[in-house]
Design brief:
single chain; about 270 residues; Rossmann fold; six-stranded mixed sheet; binds adenosine-5'-triphosphate; ABC transporter ATP-binding protein; ABC_transp_ATP-bind
Length: about 270
């Protein structure tokens, strides 16, 4: 369904003598319909830039992006909004809650992509669709009349996910969807995402700095460093026996409860 070939992105340096930043450097991968690919790496490794290119939010510098056989990498972000693929690829932003418009209720926020992307105009049908989506993301009906500041972080995340599902997408690009949530809420949202993937037959491109989240959510993984892929393959295999020094270091940095190295004598 998605084929990314030799994708690169460089940002112009700012100020005098500033060097350009090669944020993504020669990244290739494929993602099958219904598949899940995690992208992990430390801050600044290029994960969000990669995700934003695939969502066609930003121009690419080089390489290609093919979706369902169309060369969407060649489409500029401003033209992409009018393309049929636009509703098939949905981007769930980091800190979803903060991306909700403050003066729109949850109902209005979910209705917006139903009108804009799914093309429904009948108000009764729109209302019904909002109710169905709210049920899918386990958001109680009484919360639909609330504004973002009246919702918890987890509830706002559910609204953001419902918005992404409104256009019946095939691919969700999830950019650190739970990074801003506390641990128990994070677990509930990950469980929801896991369940939605099989319910709706979605594919996930899942960006995270947390390798444990990717272990839970993704069949395949890419480890990035300084814009480049350092490891790539089935998650279980890569996490069991990382081949690169960086992959090993990333895994060793994960704290474990039964790990004496991290125990404190204090
Ligand atoms: N709009 C921009 N202009 C200039 N440089 C940018 C821009 N966006 C990102 N960069 C640079 O590109 C590199 C990759 O950034 P990116 O945000 O993709 O990394 P990341 O792995 O997603 O990091 P984080 O986990 O902190 O979000 C960084 O060096 C960053 O400073």
């Amino acid at each position: 369904m998605l084929k990314v070939s030799r994708l690169t992105k460089s940002f112009k340096g700012r100020g005098w003598r500033a060097n350009d930043v090669l944020a993504v450097d020669d990244v290739s991968f494929e993602l099958a319909r219904g598949g899940s690919l995690g992208v992990v790496g430390e801050s600044g490794s290029g994960k969000s830039t990669l995700a934003r290119m695939v969502s066609r939010l930003i121009e690419i510098t080089g390489g290609g992006i093919e979706f369902d056989g169309s060369d969407i990498g060649a489409v500029s972000p401003s033209s992409f909004v009018r393309r049929p693929e636009r509703r098939k690829i949905q981007h769930v932003f980091q800190d979803t809650g903060e991306n909700l418009t403050p003066h729109l209720t949850a109902r209005a926020a979910i209705a917006d992509p139903i009108r804009r992307l799914a093309g429904l105009t009948d108000e009764r049908q729109i209302r019904h669709k909002v109710d169905t989506l709210a049920t899918s993301v386990a958001l109680s009906p009484e919360l639909l009349n609330r504004y973002p500041h009246q919702l918890s972080g987890g509830q706002k995340a559910r609204v953001g996910i419902a918005r992404a599902l409104a256009s019946a997408p095939d691919l969700l690009i999830l950019d650190e969807p739970t990074a801003a949530l506390d641990v128990s809420v994070q677990a509930a949202i990950l469980k929801l995402l896991h369940h939605l993937r099989s319910e709706f037959g979605l594919a996930y491109l899942f960006i995270s700095h947390d390798i444990e989240v990717v272990r839970l959510m993704c069949e395949d993984v890419i480890i990035m460093r300084l814009g480049r892929v350092v490891e790539q393959g089935p998650t279980r295999q890569i996490l069991e026996s990382p081949q690169s020094d960086y992959g090993r270091a990333l895994l060793e940095a994960v704290p474990r409860l039964n790990d004496r190295r991290h125990a404190s004598s204090a």
